[in-house]
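Assemble and predict.
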Amino acid sequence: MSISVYYFGAISLILIGLYAVLVKKNLLKILVGLSIMETGVNLLLISIGYIAGRSAPILSEGVGPNQAVDPIPQALVLTAIVIGVATTALALTVAINLYETYKTLNIEELRRLRG
Amino acid sequence: MNQYAALLIALPLISAFFVPVIKSLSKKVVMPFLVLVTAVQTGIAAWVFNEVYSSGKPMIIMAGGFKPPVGINLYIGHFAALFVLIIAVTSFFMAVFSMKAITVEPKDKYVMLFLLLMLGATGMIATGDIFNLFVFMEITAISAYALTAYNKTGEASEAAMKYIILGGIGSSFFLVGIALIYGSLGTLNMAQIAQLAGRMNPTVAQAALAMLVFGLAVEAELFPLNAWAPDAYQAAPHPVTTMFSAFVVKAGLYALARVLYLTHAVGSWGHVLKLLIVLGTLTVVIGELSALRQTNVKRMFAYSSIAQVGFIAVGFALGTQAGVTASVFHMVNHAIVKALMFMAVGYVAFELGGVNLEDFKGLGKTMPLTAFAITVGAISIIGIPLFNIFWSKIQLILAALKAGKTGVIALILGASLVEAVYYIRLIHTMWFEEGDRDRIKENLIFGTIMLLLVALIIIIGVAPNFVWNIVQKAGADIYNAAQYIKNVPLLPGVSP
C-alpha cells in the first residue's frame, strides 16, 4: 500500500473533524469533532515519519537505526496526544459547568455574551 | 553562567507544582508566594536583559548540554530578553493586584495557573525549536482556558468554551504546518529550518506557513480566529485580562513574526505576507468598528486591544526591517498602556461592581487617580503627541511609506480617528458627567503601580530615544535571520 493512502486518510479525518466543529449544534459533538481532528493530525505526523518496510523504532535485536522508521514524529505524536487529552478533559469540565448553569448543550441557546 | 537563564522557565514551573505544598502549610501564604515568585522572576529577567544588552550577544541555553539540532535550545536574543522582562514585570504587578482582586476560591489553583500562564508565554518567546514552541503555546493556551473559566459563572464557562474550540482548531492547524515543514526539511530546530528554508518546495512552504499563521492567529487574536477574545477578556478575572492583553497576545505575535522571518528564503514568502496583511487589516477594521458600539468598557478595551494587534500584524507584514522595528515598538507601548488600562478598569469593577459606561459617570470625582490613569492611557492610544503610542504609530506610518503601502497609512489614520471617537466619549463620561457616588479612598499600592505606568507612558512619549534604541536591536533580532543562524551553534555534520 502506498504512503499516499495514509495522507489521504489523515487529511480526511482532519476535514471530518473540522466539519463537525463548524456545523454541529451540540457541544459534545463539537468536542468529538475536535478530537477527530487531533487524531487526523497525529496520523499525518506519523505517516510523515513512515518508511515502507521498516519496523517500530525500538532498539532490539535485529533492529538498528537502518531498520527502523523515523522516531521523531512518534515522539511528537506522544506529546500531541498528551496535550490533546488535557484539552479534551478541560473542555468536558467546562461543558459540565455550562450544562449545570444553562441546562442545555445546544450552542444556539448558549449565547449570553454578545456584541 | 548562561545556563542560569534556564531558571526563567524552571522557576515558574517548579513553583507552580510547589503550590499544593505551600497550601497545605497555610492557605494564607499562597498569594504572597505568588508575589514572591514573580518578584524573583523579575529579578532573573532583569539580569538576563542586562546581560544580553550589555554583551550584545544572545544567550543560548542547551537543554541537557546536547548541541542543537540534536538537543532543544532556548534562544534569548535581544527581543526575547526585552519581552521576558515585560512579561515578568507585568506578572509581578498583576500578582500584587490579584492579592485583592481575586475573591473566588480556590486561590491555590489560581496561583498555579497564573504561574503556568507566565511560564508558557516566557517559553514561547525564548524557545529555539518549533515543536517546543507548540508545546509552550499549548501550555499557555490550556492555562488561559482554565483561567478564563475561573469565575465559574455561565458567561465565564461560555467564553472559555469558545476559546477552547478555536484554540483546538488553531493548534491542529499549527501541527499540520509543523508536519509539512518536518516532512520537507527533516528538522525542527528553528535555526536549521532557517538555514534550509530555500530548499523547500514553494507550494508546500506556502501551505505550511499559511497553516502556521492560522494556528498562531488564535493566540495572536487575528481576525477569523479572534471571536473568543472579547468574551474571554470580559469574563476572565481582571488580572488575567491584563495579562492576556499585555503579553499572551504578544507571545503569539512574536511567534508569528519569528517563524515568518526565519523562513523568508522560501520562494512563496511574499504570498504569506499578503495573507498576513489582509488578516491584519481586517482585524483592525473589525476591532475598531466593534469597539465603537460597546457599552461595557472592559469589552470596549478588548476590541481596542484587538485593533492594536492588527496594527502590529500589519507592521510585521510589511516585510521590511523598519516595519518589524515599528511593530516591536508598538508591542512594547501597547503592553504598557493596556496593562495600565485593564488594571484601572479591573480596579473600578472591584470597587463599583460593574464596568458599564454608566458606572464611569463622574469617575473623575469618585476615583480621580484611576480616572486619570484611564485618561492618560486613552489619550496615548489615540496617538496624541507626547504620549508613547504616538511614536510607534508614526514609525508604523513611516515604515509603510517606505515600503510603498499607502493603504496601511490610511488604515492607521482612519483607525486612530475611530479610536478618538470612543475614547473621548469615555473621557467625557468620566470627567464631565455627574455621578451619584461619593468619593472612594483609592488603594495606595494600586495607585502607585498605576502612576508608575503613567510615568512610563509619558517618559517614553517625551524622550523616546532610549526605548527606541532598545527596540531597534530587538527588531533587528527578529528581522535578521542570517544572524540568528550564526548565533546558534549547530552541531556540524548533523543534517537531515
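The longest strand of chain B covers residues 59-62.
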